[in-house]
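note to self — DONT lose this again. spent like an hour looking for the file last time. sequence + predicted structure for the chain T wanted, 321 res
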Amino acid sequence: MDPVSFDDLLARHGAAPLRRSRLTTLQVNVGKRCNQACHHCHVDAGPLRKEQMDLRTAERVLTLLERNPGIELLDLTGGAPELCPHFRMLVSGARALHRTVIDRCNLTVLFEQGQEDTAQFLAEEGAAIVASLPCYGPENVERQRGRGVFEKSIAALQQLNGLGYGLPGSELALNLVYNPVGPALPPSQAELEARYRDELGHRFGISFHRLLTLTNMPIARFAADLARQGREAEYLSLLVNHFNPATVPGVMCRSLVSVGYDGRLYDCDFNQMLEIPLGAGSRTVWDGDELEALADAPIATAPHCLGCTAGAGSSCGGALV
């Protein structure tokens, strides 16, 4: 597919060029080490990956948060972010600066050696948890994430509920994430959330706040799987044919900057994995203190951006419309 097709679609609907609005979120990928190796993973993370954020870079992230008061949210991802040695420092440091913190948790990591008190730590810090659970039944979860993952995920959710996460009226936010097993768009977020709530509540007594639906991006492992099936062109055509201009104002790159484990900056986590430099120019966390100055800066785009604008849209906060 023509690599400028996404920009062509934006131009056709009067939405080009894509630019950042106000910067409110710093999403930090602390590394590629993970206790799982999921088939859809856009980070290509796994137990054998060694890349992790060092102390100097983690400290610089907190400095930038302090010097940019308009950044309201620190969004920690990986890999399994909890496996980074400086994860707790980042959580505690950001909370001390009165920022909201999200931990993007795969749930099973809570049972890894050395993580026995991680859930309690997160609850004490008041960190929000966004937890991956691609289905309310074992078959699809284990097809995508591996044998035994569903049972451990349910146990982790029950543990989090026991700490107050996800309960009605609780300030300890627990949101679940769904993404399709194969090359399809997610169904209606509201309808799927109702189904999750019914199934998980009745079968396991689990409560959560919201379900977020994410579209699989045609990069890394998912792209390789599409290639093996000979379905790359089919999937990209699906995304093009379902382009929705109403999603463009809310795409996450318009309010977010992504930080790599090595301190380099990107327009989003997907661009980071493809090593597409920040649209405003190649920068790192050490190039200046004023991240908020990136407002109105151009955003680098590529064909995978079609995944964020197809159907109801997709972002780290779920559907866009």
